[in-house]
């Protein structure tokens, strides 16, 4: 429907512009033609009147009595344009040619250049009056030219334009419609192809016409939009699948434990043991669900941070208190280098605490007993840099680019053994970025890792 209306709109605008141009051209050509003709007629008349004035000047000097005859002789040489009359200042005729008498052109009252038009007995005449003085007398010389032929030609031109214009308009609108149809045909194609793409065929792409025009750009833009949609759609699908998978394992475990305990447990301590196992799984599951919800809210853009000026050192010390306890349980040495001057960032202290704890937790989890962890805080001009250094198992170069992906674990079996699901670093990165900061990692397998969080300082 819409394309038809675009086509019609294009054609209508085209026809309207053409109509205006044709009208303008017709009027301008008509006016220019008339002015041109009248100008050249006027020049001609001026020449004639000049000739007559010259004859009169000469005759009035030599023998004034022959004025009438001389004028007639002069005029007889001009067979066709026998339009001349001369009168004196009192309106008395000195000479009147045959045609002037025939068409009864009124006597001239004053000189006039350019000439003027009159209608005399159905004959359009262009009349020019010139004054001359000789021997104390003023004479008015009046010459004229019949304009019927010129006006007939102009009439013919007018009718030609009037009759041809509708024909040109009809042809042009047909052509315009055809052209716009051709130009918009690829849009039809794009529309049809786009209609066929749905959530099951997001991998499909539109054909890109190599025309180098707007339509190529449109197809390319739609294709890149499809690529973005496909990748976020796949991410969401993957996320949902991974999440369900991670939830299924502890649920199955709890169910089996409960069933077995119901069937076989005999003593209170047997039941207690089973319940403790279930509780342990429940805690893990709640923590997983809580992480999932946080990421889902972050994706939806509804997880809002309470932003206040936060002293990074205070927040880090708090996290290190928990870290210390974790490290002790694994016989790790835990050292804090938080001596830098006050570094304030604008952020959410709970989120930052969580970010620091995720990194300490990883350092503890992935460092074997006897190793050491060092947490440091330094400041640069515009950012606070928090560093988490461990002497743990390290991360291989293959895993390094992926560890911030959701559910990614370098060594699945080992990580799960530590209770990890692979969401910690995704959350850490989200928190860092929500504070306009960044997080980076360096690691040597077998030697240890360093995670560095950079947070821009509060410029208040
Ligand atoms: N300090 C570290 N040393 C060695 N490997 C690490 C370290 N920190 C992270 N990793 C690797 O990166 C993976 C992803 O870490 P992440 O914190 O996202 O998940 P997790 O610790 O397995 O689970 P979660 O934190 O969600 O409980 C880990 O599984 C681990 O393989
Ligand atoms: Mg972790």
Summary of the model, kept short:
This protein is an alpha+beta fold and 460 residues long. Helices cover 57% and strands 18% of the residues.
Fold and architecture overview:
It is built from ten helices and twelve strands. It has 460 residues and is of the alpha+beta class. The strands form three sheets. A five-stranded antiparallel beta sheet has the order 2-1-5-4-3. A five-stranded mixed beta sheet has the order 7-9-10-12-11, covered by helices on one side. β11 and β12 form a beta hairpin. α1 crosses α2, α7 packs parallel to α8 and α8 packs antiparallel against α10. The longest helix has 61 residues. The two termini are 56 Å apart. The model has no long low-confidence stretch (mean pLDDT 89). The structure holds adenosine-5'-triphosphate (ATP) and magnesium ion. Magnesium ion binds next to α8. Adenosine-5'-triphosphate (ATP) binds next to α8 and α10.
Descriptive keywords:
460 residues; alpha+beta; 10 helices; binds adenosine-5'-triphosphate; binds magnesium ion
């Amino acid at each position: 429907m819409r394309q038809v209306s675009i086509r019609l709109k294009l054609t209508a605008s085209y026809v309207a512009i053409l109509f205006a141009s044709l009208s303008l051209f017709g009027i301008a050509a008509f006016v220019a033609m008339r002015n041109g003709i009248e100008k050249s007629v006027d020049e001609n008349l001026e020449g004639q009147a000049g000739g007559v004035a010259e004859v009169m000047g000469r005759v009035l000097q030599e023998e004034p009595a022959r004025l009438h005859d001389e004028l007639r002789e002069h005029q007889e040489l001009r067979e066709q344009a026998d339009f001349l009359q001369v009168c004196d200042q009192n309106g008395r005729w000195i000479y009147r040619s045959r045609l002037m008498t025939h068409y009864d052109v009124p006597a001239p009252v004053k000189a006039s250049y350019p000439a003027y038009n009159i209608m005399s007995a159905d004959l359009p005449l262009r009349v020019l009056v010139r004054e001359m003085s000789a021997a104390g007398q003023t004479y008015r010389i009046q010459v004229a030219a019949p304009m019927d032929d010129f006006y007939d030609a102009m009439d013919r031109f007018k009718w030609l334009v009037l009759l041809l214009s509708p024909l040109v308009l009809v042809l042009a609108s047909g052509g315009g419609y055809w052209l716009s149809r051709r130009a918009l045909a690829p849009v039809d194609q794009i529309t049809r192809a786009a209609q066929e793409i749905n959530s099951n065929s997001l991998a499909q792409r539109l054909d890109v016409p190599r025309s180098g025009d707007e339509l190529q750009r449109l197809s390319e833009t739609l294709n890149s939009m499809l690529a973005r949609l496909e990748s976020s759609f796949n991410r969401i699908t993957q996320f949902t699948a991974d999440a369900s998978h991670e939830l299924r394992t502890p649920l199955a475990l709890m169910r089996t434990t409960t069933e077995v305990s119901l069937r076989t447990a005999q003593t209170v301590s047997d039941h207690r043991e089973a319940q403790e196992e279930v509780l342990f799984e429940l805690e893990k599951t709640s923590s997983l669900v809580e992480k999932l919800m946080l990421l889902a809210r972050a994706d939806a853009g509804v997880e809002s941070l309470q932003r206040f000026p936060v002293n990074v050192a205070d927040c880090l010390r708090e996290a290190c208190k928990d870290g210390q306890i974790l490290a002790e349980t694994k016989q790790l040495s835990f050292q804090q280098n938080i001596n830098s001057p006050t570094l304030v960032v604008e952020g959410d202290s709970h989120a930052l605490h969580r970010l620091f704890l995720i990194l300490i937790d990883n350092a503890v989890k992935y460092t074997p007993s006897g190793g050491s962890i060092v947490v440091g805080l330094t400041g640069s001009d515009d950012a606070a840099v928090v560093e988490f250094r461990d002497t743990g198992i390290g991360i291989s170069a293959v895993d390094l680019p992926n560890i911030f992906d959701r559910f990614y674990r370098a060594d699945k079996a080992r990580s799960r053994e530590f209770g990890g699901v692979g969401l910690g670093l995704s959350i850490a990165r989200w928190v860092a970025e929500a504070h306009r900061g960044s997080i980076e990692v360096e690691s040597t397998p077998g030697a240890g890792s360093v995670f560095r969080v950079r947070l821009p300082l509060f410029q208040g």
